[in-house]
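Researcher: Let's walk through a ligand-bound prediction step by step. First, I give you the protein sequence. Second, the SMILES string for zinc ion. Third, you return the three-dimensional complex as structure tokens. Ready?
Model: Ready.
Researcher: Here are steps one and two:
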Amino acid sequence: MRIPHRLVVLPLLMALAAVPACSGGVHGGPGAAGLRDPYFPGLGNGGYDVTHYALDLAYDPATHRLTGTADLTATARQSLSAFHLDLQGLTVDEVTVDGKRAVGSRAGHELTVRPHDELPDGSTFRTTVRYSGEPETITDPDGSEEGWLRTADGALGLGEPTGSMAWFPGNNHPSDKATYDITVTVPKGQQAVSNGELTSERTSADGRRTTYSWHVAQPMGSYLATVAVGRFDIRRSKTPSGLPVWTAVDPQEAQASKEVLGRLPEVITWETKRFGAYPFSSTGAIVDRDGDAGYALETQNRPVFPGAPDLGTLVHELAHQWYGDSVTPKSWRDMWLNEGFATYAEWLWEEDHHGEPAREAFDAVYARPKGAAVWSFPPADPPGAAQISDTPVYQRGAMVLQKVRETIGDADFFSLLKSWPADHKYGNADTGDFTAYVEKKNPGKAKALAGVWDVWLYGDGKPRQS
Ligand SMILES: [Zn+2]
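Model: Step three, the predicted complex:
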């Protein structure tokens, strides 16, 4: 999907800005229509921060129809006469702000909301959007599919990088994290699985519908929200340390998933030892048969797998709970901070469990010829939106971490693996934050680290020496 160009929206913004929202006093203006992400400039919105999303959804796989009410609690970061939400497709039936009817207008994926009363800088306000329709599947610049995906027995909502706006309105950018309540009503016989913890499961009085309520108590980026509707075997257990585990497995994948998912508590225990305290209040996995997506995603609390996962992928997606989900990129340029760490977690798993040092995994990648995809661009600077999930972001991102390890030594490196997510817990960080952090923690190594950044993080082509 190509994001509609911001210029399409600007005339509308200027028109809104030209009309004062009230007479007398200081006038607020409209919030920006995008956050100027280097790759997705129109994503997200300026002028406010969302602190909580309460989503009340109903979906019927037979008709593909979604009806939703999104109740957003947000804080104004400027005086606002109008503000934007991101919403792709669907029909907006009503918008209210603080209980009063507001004017909503659509242009591309921008829903412009003009509240009845101007919102003062610093004020907390509630926006309620009622909407309905058949949610869309979004095709990314790299050709992969996200947003709302129909599955054989239901549907799956996936949001990296842009897709959450296909099923709920919001500030759709990783830099604005919020807590969530996600309630989903489905026809009897179907299940609905989401992030966080299942707080209730109710059947309607006529017995025809079941409502599942999931609560996400820790901040989450919108791209990490998920809903899976279909027939699932939902099981609750606990890790040895008492962390609740919810797994939801498509019955057709149950046998093939059993062994690997049985090791989930062991993976979480090992990752906690390596990466520090687990950042969220539950874990788990969703195994669905989403033939359209075909990729796993580190959705918060419980990653989604497109079929029975292998152990390496489980290690990778669960490592993201620390690297990506708890400490989240400031923009989509910083993807390597997610994928480099999660790939390195796979290398480290092999090192700790099979005696294969991470350096061997590094050497195997380094052995690839000059023209190989892994050398096509530096991990910290993908050339465009279509490349943010390419090989250099993963493999060469992990190589950066191996070079950091060899520069600062094992003791300080393993301490870094824990302190980086702990010191940025539930927050956002970019590449500059990371390099400054490593240098500050290792003041005697600043010069050698600068060399690592120049060659491995920002340098073009295959480095001359490994
Ligand atoms: Zn990943």
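Researcher: And what stands out?
Model: The radius of gyration is 23 Å. The pocket of zinc ion is lined by residues 298, 316, 320, 338-339, 342 (CB under 6 Å).
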